[in-house]
Amino acid sequence: MADASTLKVYHLPGAWGLPTVSPFCLKLDAWLRMTGIPHESITAPTPFAGPKGKAPWIELDGKKLGDSTFIVAHLAERFGVDPDAHLTPAQHGVAVAIQRLIDENLYWTMVHDRWMNEANWKQFRDIVLGGLALPVRRVLGPIARRGVKKQLEGHGIGIHEPEEIAAIGRRDVNALAAILGDQDWFFGDTPSTIDAVAYAQLVNIWRAPFESEVRRAIGQTPNLVAFIDRFAAKYYS
Length: 237
Ligand SMILES: N[C@@H](CCC(=O)N[C@@H](CS)C(=O)NCC(=O)O)C(=O)O
What we know:
Layout: E1 8-11, H1 23-35, E2 40-43, E3 57-60, E4 63-66, H2 68-79, H3 89-115, H4 118-128, H5 134-155, H6 162-180, H7 193-206, H8 213-219, H9 222-236
Bound molecules: glutathione.
């Protein structure tokens, strides 16, 4: 019987063999696998019940907490785990910079490809809204899409042409491939939080059967494809 000290993790629905199509939700899921913290995983049909209206969120000790980065920091303290303990201060700094590239930039190129490309959207809407009854999905779909278009414009990436957005995404992918080089993990032989961040975003682009220049770019970087496979084999086999 679950009590308040049972960690409940809420995430958006999954597809393509992934537990969730949200990179932020998958980041948290991957980090929980990395750290072995026991939890109950719950699929939410929308992010609206989260304390910030976004997924993922958790419930623990009678409180709700949103934002994958805040959640990771809170859980690391609450459960006394630190998969980044072996990093130097400089590596901690680089990890923040890589995470910004992934969460605040590369993520939005994926959002553009999923939501704004007509052919991709026709497939994706039934996945991302798949937890809702069909009549609700039909009403909510166009409203959600308009909201995402506004978010893309607010971020800034949405004012660009599709080819320009593809170039931005390609540059991020190539930067990640160059940073990883021939290492197994972003900081050498031992995985750390940034590997969960990178895996969650890259696999969400790579596994989705969508038309995407950024996906093609990942396919052209064998070390990133090997990294995705390595992470999946270690934590999701
Ligand atoms: N900074 C947040 C971002 C979370 C986020 O943007 N989640 C998306 C799903 S991938 C979401 O819930 N979007 C709904 C919306 O913006 O309305 C985190 O790290 O958790």
